[in-house]
Design brief:
alpha/beta; 392 residues; globular; TIM Barrel; two-stranded antiparallel ribbon
């Protein structure tokens, strides 16, 4: 029996990934910043809402398709940008992009990917976004924009919550730093997972594929490349820099990392097409608000002038349904597909996406509403009496 066949939800894929990966590598996917309060809050936030079904509605022919920033997708899910995916499986971003294209949903390639912009662009005709930062070296930004355009990426996604790297203490305890600290614990951990090692060695050397030739003195050395990328995070970035990038790109543009209504309004003012409500999966600022908690006020502030996407804590179809009911156009996920990738390569990613699709479709039917019909009437805040603004 294929082990993936016994993975019936994202939790099962997470358990399979945990068995296959060294602990340090699994924790790199699974962990968050500091006390991981935000990481836990992203999940628990969904639990504050109950679903309120409508019965005796016709859900025989239920459309799953939606449109996000002008792109039609098969169901309201987007794959978030995640760096260095070949660490988790030798096929890395290639497997993820291919699975997303087959599923008919958007894949967002990270600037820090282990497969290049050009290779992913040539691999699939599926909908693709490129994730980017405002780097200190603006010529590098221009180069990335030109490369993404030439490779037929349809939109840019600017991540704005990485002024510095978050304090990810699991990685520090495990020695998974740059450069790695090869403690006896880390060496033993790696040694107990030969399948992972063999898979890694079977492919070309790991590299930050999009900065090959850009990092002075790197000569293919991953650690030097990573130090170079870290040095390029610009702490002086302002809204003017984001507006400049929008002009340079000249196409659909999303900002990822917004948690306040005022920032959402600023983003609209400079011409974004998408607002991604996100706290970087709890990997940056600990104690930050959960996206699901701030989603309603951001949707109100945007007032239909851009598509709002929720990123963070999504593990079930019911999570997606709740976000859509609160006004999101789609949800973005990162860890769920990485669990699938680590557990079984491209087949594991496909399994994760299939789980989401079947859960979303089932849950919509049980709620009794199509995607476009979902609204606050399908939700009720727990422990809040009827008569309060949301529970009327």
């Amino acid at each position: 029996m294929n082990p993936l066949e016994s993975c019936h939800d994202i939790g099962d894929l997470r358990a399979a990934a945990r068995r296959r990966l060294p602990r340090a590598v699994f924790d790199f996917i699974d962990g968050g910043a500091e006390d991981e309060v935000t990481l836990r809050g992203n999940r628990s936030g969904f639990g504050r809402y109950d679903l309120v079904p409508e019965v005796l509605t016709d859900v025989a022919d239920l459309a799953m398709t939606t449109t996000v920033m002008g792109q039609d997708i098969a169901y309201p899910l987007i794959l978030a940008p995640t760096g260095m995916s070949r660490i988790f499986h030798r096929d890395g971003e290639r497997a993820v992009a291919a699975a997303a294209a087959k599923a008919g949903i958007i894949y967002s390639l990270s600037s820090a990917s282990s497969v290049s912009i050009e290779e992913i662009g040539a691999l699939t005709q599926g909908p693709k976004w490129f994730q980017i930062y405002v780097w200190r070296d603006r010529s590098l930004v221009r180069d990335f924009i030109a490369r993404a355009r030439a490779a037929d990426f349809q939109a840019l996604c600017l991540t704005v919550d990485v002024q510095v790297l978050g304090n990810r203490q699991r990685d520090l305890h495990n020695g998974l730093t740059v450069p790695p600290r090869f403690t006896p614990r880390l060496v033993l951990d790696l040694a107990w997972h030969p399948r992972w090692w063999l898979g890694l060695l079977a492919g070309p050397p790991l590299e930050m594929a999009n900065v090959v030739g850009k990092a002075p003195g790197a000569d293919g050395d991953l650690r030097t490349m990573m130090r170079y990328v870290d040095s390029q995070f610009d702490r002086s970035v302002t809204w003017d820099d984001a507006a400049w990038m929008i002009r340079e790109w000249g196409g659909p543009f999303a900002i990822k990392g917004i948690l306040s209504a005022e920032d959402a309004r600023r983003a609209i003012d400079i011409g974004v097409a998408g607002i991604i409500v996100s706290n970087h999966g709890g990997r940056q600022l600990d104690q930050a608000a959960a996206p699901i908690d701030v989603l309603p006020e951001i949707v109100d502030a945007v007032a239909g002038r851009a598509d709002v996407i929720l990123d963070g804590g999504v593990r079930r179809g019911t999570d997606v349904v709740k976000a859509l009911a609160l006004g999101a156009k789609a949800c973005m996920v990162g860890r769920p597909y990485l669990y699938g990738l680590a557990a079984g390569g491209g087949a594991g990613v496909a399994r994760a996406l299939g789980v989401f699709r079947s859960e979303i479709e089932r849950d919509l039917r049980l709620v009794g509403a199509a995607i476009d019909d979902l609204g606050p009437r399908h939700l009720r805040l727990k422990d809040v009496p009827r008569g309060y603004p949301f529970n009327r």
